[in-house]
Amino acid sequence: MPGKAANAPGKQSLKGKRSGVKKLGKKNQIKLVLDCSHPVEDGIMNCADFEKYLQERIKVGGKTSNFGNDVQLKRDKTKINLTSNVPFSKRYLKYLTKKYLKKNNLRDWLRVVASAKDSYELRYFQINNDESDNEDEDNA
After folding, report:
1. Short-list 95, 86, 77, 64, CA closest to 37
2. What tens digit of pLDDT does each residue of 36-77 get?
3. What is the rounded average pLDDT of the residues 129-136?
4. Which three-class secondary structure state does DSSP give residue 56?
5. Which residues are 35's β-sheet partners?
6. CA-CA distances (angstroms) from residue 139 to 115, 128, 129, 130, 131?
7. If exposure means fewest CB atoms within 10 Å of the residue's CB, which of 17, 34, 35, 68 is most exposed?
C-alpha cells in the first residue's frame, strides 16, 4: 500500500466499536412515560415489580444496570418515568415491556400502545363478545 501508512496489527480499531455513548445536552433530554394504570388498578400487575425488572434489564452503553447519572427511572404510583441524557430508544422501552408481559403471562390480555409521542400505555385487547352472545341465544 504505497502512500498509506498501515496501522500496527494491535492498534486497529474495531468496526462498530465506539469509545462510549454520546451525551445529549440538558435541553435535549429524552423523557419517556409508561402508564400502567389499567392493569395495576385491576390487580393483575405490580408496578414496583415492573420497575425493578426495567432497572435490571435496561442497557446503557451495552451494559445492564449501568445507569449512572445518564438515565433515571422513577415510579409515580402507576406511571414509570424514564429520563435520559444519552440517546435512548422509545422502541427499546416497548420491547422490554412486551418481554415483561410475556414473562408474567399477561401478553394475551395486555398490549403496549403509544398514547403520545413520548409515552406508552398498557391497554387491554378489545374482545368482541357479539358472536358468543348470538350463539348463546341460538341454543336457548
Report:
1. 77
2. 999 999 999 999 999 999 999 999 988 998 888 889 999 999
3. 59
4. helix
5. 79, 121
6. 41, 19, 16, 15, 13
7. 17
Would the pLDDT of 135 be above 60? no
The amino acid at 15 = K
Map residue 101 onto helix, strand or coil: helix
Say how far residue 68 (Cα) sits from the centre of its chain. 18
Q: Which residue is it, cell 440538558?
A: 26
Identity of the amino acid at 2: P
Cα distances (Å, whole numbers) of residue 41 to 37, 67, 69, 78, 79: 6, 29, 32, 8, 12
- Give the whole-angstrom CA distance, residue 36 versus residue 13: 44
Side-chain half-sphere CA neighbours of 67 within 13 A: 14
State the cell numbers at 61.
Answer: 452503553
Q: Which amino acid is at 134?
A: N
- Provide the whole-model pTM: 0.73
Q: Scanning the structure block, which residue is given the C-alpha cell 420491547?
A: 95
136: its cell numbers: 348463546
